[in-house]
Design brief:
The complex is a heterodimer of chains A (116) and B (130). Chain A is α/β, with parallel strands linked by helices. Chain A has a single domain, classed as DsrEFH-like (Hypothetical Protein Ychn, Chain: A), CATH 3.40.1260. Chain A is built from three helices and five strands; from the N terminus they run βαββαβαβ. A five-stranded parallel sheet of chain A has the order 4-3-2-1-5. Chain B has one domain: 3-Layer(aba) Sandwich (Hypothetical Protein Ychn, Chain: A), CATH 3.40.1260.10. Chain B has a five-stranded parallel sheet with strand order 4-3-2-1-5, sandwiched between helices. In chain B, α1 links the parallel β1 and β2. Chain B is globular. The chains are: A alpha/beta (116), B alpha/beta (130). Chains A and B meet through α1 and β5 of A and α3 and α5 of B.
């Protein structure tokens, strides 16, 4: 099965982040998908967020359903969590934290990478 | 080699659109195949039929259309991105009771399955803009 990695780098308030999540769900129907959150994208993983207060839809409520869609592997940048001072207990779903070398290896293991 | 190209950037406001266009042209010139060009996010604006830039400036939407027509390219615009941004074909315009269409008919409106299919079928997937 084709291995696709979706890289999410946008903050959750952007429509692009929401559209990227849509693409991931579609991908999971046809391919072996994993997802990596980097940069501002790690904010998408925060449990305590209320984008509704800014008039944005909270599509991240769908994250716990990712495993039901067959997306079993969720990763994020360890160095980015550290620099944003985010503790893993603040995240909405279980995530494997990868250092930069491991991220490099993850990317090389894929057939294709879709970056958002 | 078989390429799939994904365009996330709008013309004029983002270099990604022009870079993607130049890349697509080079892919063809070098004798490779383009499996599909998929327009997502603000990239759907590349299919805008109603843009009128000044005559002495580039017309990126028109350049895409010409390239697509000349080489019979499969240029697909994501339907949910497009609807959100007002890029409508006749079917969608009618469905949502609008008075006009805004997409160049050389582009096709379709779903995200076309993006995933392109990612799987192509040898290389190249994304422009984040």
């Amino acid at each position: 099965m084709h291995k696709l990695l979706f890289i999410m780098s946008k903050s959750p308030i952007t429509i692009n982040a929401q559209e990227a999540f849509d693409a991931l769900l579609m991908g999971s129907a046809f391919a072996d998908c994993s997802v990596l959150f980097i940069g501002d994208g790690v904010y998408q993983l925060l449990q305590a967020q209320k984008p509704e207060t800014l008039g944005a839809k909270n599509y991240t409520l769908g994250f716990p359903a990712l495993s039901d869609y067959g997306v079993k592997r969720v990763y994020c940048s360890k160095s980015q969590l550290t620099s944003l001072k985010i503790n893993s207990s603040e995240l909405a779903i279980p995530v494997d934290q990868l250092d930069d070398l491991e991220i490099n290896q993850l990317i090389t293991q894929q057939h294709k990478v879709l970056s958002f | 080699m078989k390429f799939a190209i994904v365009v996330h950037g709008a013309p004029y406001s983002d270099q990604a659109a022009r870079s993607a266009y130049l890349f697509a042209r080079s892919v063809i010139e070098e004798g490779h195949e383009i499996y599909r060009i998929f327009f997502y996010h603000n990239g759907v604006y590349n299919a805008n039929l109603l843009s009128v830039p000044p005559q002495d400036e580039a017309h990126i939407e028109l350049e895409w259309a010409n390239l697509g027509q000349e080489h019979q390219l499969d240029m697909v615009v994501c339907i949910s991105s497009a609807l959100r941004r007002g890029i409508l074909d006749a079917t969608e315009s009618q469905r949502y009771d609008k008075e006009s269409t805004s997409i160049n008919p050389l582009f096709t409106v379709s779903g995200l399955g076309q993006l995933v299919d392109a990612a799987i079928q192509a040898d290389k997937l190249v994304t422009f803009g984040v």
